[in-house]
Amino acid sequence: MKIWLDGGLQDAEGARVSVFDHGLTVGDGVFETIKAEHGRAFALTRHLERLTTSARGLGLPDPDLDEVRRGCAAVIDANPMALGRLRITYTGGVSPLGSDRGEAGPTLVIALSETHRRPDTTAAVTVPWTRNERGALTGLKTTSYGENVVALARARELGASEALFANTVGALCEGTGSNVFVVLDGELHTPPLHSGCLAGITRALTISWAGAKETDLPLDALERAEEIFLTSTLRDVQAVNRIDRRQLADGPGPVTAEAMRIFDEQAAADFDPR
Ligand code: PLP
Predict the structure, then answer these.
(1) Which atom of ligand 1 is nearest to the CA of 148?
(2) Strand runs (DSSP E) across the chain, as ranges?
(3) What tens-digit pLDDT sequence spans the chain (274 residues)?
(4) How would you summarize the oligomeric state and partners of this protein (predicted)?
């Protein structure tokens, strides 16, 4: 397995990042997860724009996108696989313990791991913790993911694959690694960005391709929704067949099935042509 580090390809096994990297010691970093299918990256330009937005939000220098593109292509070419999770990590760099970021500049790591296509349906739960819709990190894809790790562990304990958060005012927000859509009276809705959710790339594509409305929704919309689905880079559009104790249809409902169909059809055009 080859990864990209220090400006070139390296063997993953021998590759070293300092134990004093600010990303490791204080979670000072941003990342992207990109789907790589048959050697091509999906929606790469959108992911690189979000990487830059997240880096700026954290006060990191803009990533060198030429290098990031070269690194992504090199890692994909060096590790052939049918379906991969391409991960870009960009951190504050090496810095003595207890100090601010060092002078040496950011650390960039690009790695790929094999993954599988997610099932069409899954179970989700709500969690008692809230997303802060007005935090310093709100809307940024940072490596400070501890809150999501805890919530996902709760979901797994309850036999689900995703945990959904409300924000501090009780509005439906997002999952630990996905955005959420609900069908109410036959219409498709998703929480707006001011709910505190990440500007998911699959979310944005689903809004424009399937015509969803951005609506402030209370958490209990999940109890009334005719259909619920999740979106993310690796899930694409995935129907929810159980939310907490509430059982929904076993397969995707009509609105979800149509969103899936449109997504699959349109997404074919959004793979990086290389
Ligand atoms: N929300 C959070 C917190 C995420 O981490 C992710 C993706 O990892 C998403 C939503 C979905 O975003 P995308 O569709 O860009 O993968």
Answers:
(1) 3
(2) 2-5, 8-11, 29-37, 40-41, 83-91, 107-114, 121-131, 162-167, 172-175, 179-184, 187-190, 213-214, 227-232, 236-243, 246-247
(3) 999 999 999 999 999 999 999 999 999 999 999 999 989 999 999 999 999 999 999 999 999 999 999 999 999 999 999 999 999 999 999 998 888 887 789 999 999 999 999 999 999 999 999 999 999 999 999 999 999 999 999 999 999 999 999 999 999 999 999 999 999 999 999 999 999 999 999 999 999 999 999 999 999 999 999 999 999 999 999 999 999 999 999 999 999 999 999 999 999 877 766 6
(4) Homodimer.
Separation between Cα atoms, residue 246 and residue 3, nearest integer Å: 43
**3.40.1210.10, 1.10.3720.10, 3.20.10.10, 2.60.120.590: which CATH number matches 121-269?**
3.20.10.10
CATH topology of domain 2-114: D-amino Acid Aminotransferase; Chain A, domain 1 (3.30.470)
φ/ψ of residue 107, rounded to 5: -105, 135
Q: What is the pTM of this model?
A: 0.96
Distance 244 CA to ligand 1 centre (A): 21
Q: Where are the domains of the chain?
A: 2-114, 121-269
Would you say the C-alpha torsion 272, 47, 215, 255 has a positive or negative sign?
Answer: positive
- Please report where in the chains the tokens 């060096």 appear, as a residue: 78
Q: How far is the CA of 89 from the centre of ligand 1 (A)?
A: 15
Which residue, judged by its Cα, is nearest atom 6 of ligand 1? Answer: 177
Per the DSSP assignment, residues forming a β-bridge with 91 are 29, 107
Whether the CB of 174 sits within 6 Å of ligand 1: yes
- What is the three-class DSSP state of 248? coil
Token pair of 62 as six digits: 């803009």
